[in-house]
Amino acid sequence: MAPTHVLRCCQRGLSWIPVIFIALVVCWSYYAYVVELCIFTIGYSSIGEQIVYLIFFHVSFVMFVWSYWKTIFTKPANPSKEFCLAKVEKERYEKEERPEAQQEVLWRAAAGLPLYTRTGSGAIRYCDRCQVIKPDRCHHCSACDMCVLKMDHHCPWVNNCVGFSNYKYFILFLAYSLVYCLFIAATVLQYFIKFWTNNLPETHAKFHVLFLFFVAAMFCISILSLFSYHLWLVGRNRSTIEAFRAPVFRTGSDKNGFSLGFRKNVAQVFGDQKKYWPLPLFTSQGDGLIFPTRLVSPDPEQGGPQPPEPSQRPSQSVAGVPASPLSEVEDHLLNSPPHGNHTAAPDALTSVGTDSVTISLESQS
User: Which of 74, 134, 196, 197 has its CA 20 to 30 Å from the CA of residue 158?
Assistant: First the structure.
């Protein structure tokens, strides 16, 4: 049997095949549109049309490639050291054999952490693989083999996990790829019809123009459905995981637990300054560790971990991602006066189990 590291190298190499395929298709589309259509087909018969086509094509092409590049090569954000067990707690956790005793260790370790969600059984969400207490909306990705903050899904077409650090880039990638394909399909259509009806002479450009229209139209249909779905998720402040399995709070399962209203939901992903929304620059709110919820303050009768004091909040950037200013709702949440104690019962708060998503959901142990 081949060594484990050899198998992992092969797996990593194969995971780049979808990205390479997309890159080849994009390179060919650039050649087919610029050279075969604008230069050979349109030629000097309509210089104005040729210039307009080339300008708009290159603008959409640059924005598409830029957002695609950022989505691929932005490292997923991981939980900070505050969510790692101390050495003593980790040893005590590993020595315990009973799940109840292990949960007692985790409850003590999570007492000062801003956690508002739990597993379906009311337990602390802990990743045995990464050995960290999972922040709200954090899940373990089996493909990336790491816990990812506000994980949405693992996308093979970008060979990366889409989460807090690159979700805006992913949305823009879908938007600009849709614009790119729509522009190509719309401008190529008239020449597609002329070639199809033999109103243009037979040249080597005919194949490229005909095939370019079919490819652009095909990608338009597939991207439009995915883009519409993610716009719907952004408007409701949900991830793909939360859309399939709603997070469970102390008050029960609530798929809208993180929804703050349409405008604030959009600002959570794109930021407050609208001038930066179309650019593949990180402007998302927060740090990926703490999220405002409709649960403003804990129930004193049920207890549970309290929001940390301002001096105790994780403030450093996560995995190279700068922490953006928190919204008013989040400040109100974090500055709420503490109630109750930190000895919470397991049913105090509940949340999503340790799910991982590739293109479809995968259950993790």
Answer: 134
